[in-house]
Amino acid sequence: MVFWLFIASLTGFTIFGLLWPLSRPLRHAPDIDDRDFYAVQIASIDQDLARGLIAPDAAEQAQREAARRLLAAQSGKNILPTDTSNVFRRRIVAALLIVGVPLSAFALYNHTGSPGLPDQPLSSRLNSFARDADLSTLIAQVEARLETHPEDGMGWATIAPVYVSTGRYSEAVTAYNKAISLMGENADLRSGLGEALMAAADGIVTAEALKDFERALTIDPKNERARYYRAVAAEQDGDRPRALALYQELGRTIPPDSEPGRLIARRVEALTGTAQPAVPDETTDQGAMIRSMVQRLDERLTQDGSDLDGWLRLMRAYQVLGETDKAKTARDRAKQALNNDQAALAKIDAAARDMGM
Questions:
Q1: Which one of 78, 150, 163, 351 has the fewest beta carbons within 10 angstroms of its own beta carbon?
Q2: 326 Cβ partners below 8 Å, 6+ apart?
Q3: Per-residue pLDDT averaged across 210-224, rounded?
């Protein structure tokens, strides 16, 4: 507020400086006094006549003309009167402009702008910009890799959920389809494709998306993402009892203090009427679901570290999410788990080099 008052004052002073001359009365200078000029002219004629430079008749005629003009000049100096008729009006207009322009500008900003928004410290904006820049750089690196190695199904599988989280839904659908065609049917990939199709449809679980979720559940009946969106589909179809049963069934297999657990709890509360929270938008909770998927993959590999593709996918997932330390840890864990498989160790080292580790 102080800043805008300063701006308004500065504007007012500027307008004041420009309009001040208009508020002053116009004063006209007096007419030029020609009496001295004609007196000098008469004396000059006398001198010319005495030196014989002019004829007497001509000198007499010139003196009479000069004398006539001298008499006319001696009638007095003509001073144009000061124009005071419009002075008051000019001052009123100047005052209105000086006061009205800043106030009008401030009123317009107060109506159309957002003067009540809090300040945005430079440090937080720079940190946010740095995070976005890092993610953009990582995405560009993966995309560059896929341009030269389009057969890298794992690369497509890694970047697809990132496309979803950044709102690039059509590209996510393409990436999931390429990953499935290269890597074969996979519950996580199939449910991810359904999620991308749902996000592209503004959060509506379309028939095509539901078909992908059902196929994912055929492959893995415990796939949490497919189970969650199957419940969302039932809720959107108006089948509240079935949606509630699906949510509750899924909630029993997810830690309640986790982000997905809290999300499911909010859905159950909304359906049972025990609370009326705002129904969350699927697109705003996708980040939690993606990280939950990565965490589940990490936990599965901790129990069974023989899955080379799983380790490589986990490394890329952490790298794309900007968690480089976790990506390096996953690399070391993978090498430890597969230390007897030289071909697997070579693939791990090659993938680490491609990711800049």
A1: 78
A2: 318
A3: 94
b/e 116-127 (16+ beta carbons within 10 angstroms → b): eeeeeeeeeeee
pTM over 0.85: no
Whole-angstrom distance, CA of residue 357 vs CA of residue 353: 5
* Rounded Cα distance, 331 and 316, in Å: 10
pLDDT band for position 237 (cuts 50, 70, 90): confident
For residue 45, with 0-12 CB atoms within 10 Å meaning exposed, 13-18 middle and 19 or more buried, which class applies? buried
For the chain, which domains are there? 126-303 (1.25.40.10)
DSSP character string of 55-115: -HHHHHHHHHHHHHHHHHHTT----PPPB-TTHHHHHHHHHHHHHHHHHHHHHHHHHHS-T
Distance of CA 273 to the CA centre of its chain: 38
| Residue 83 bridge partners (DSSP) | 26
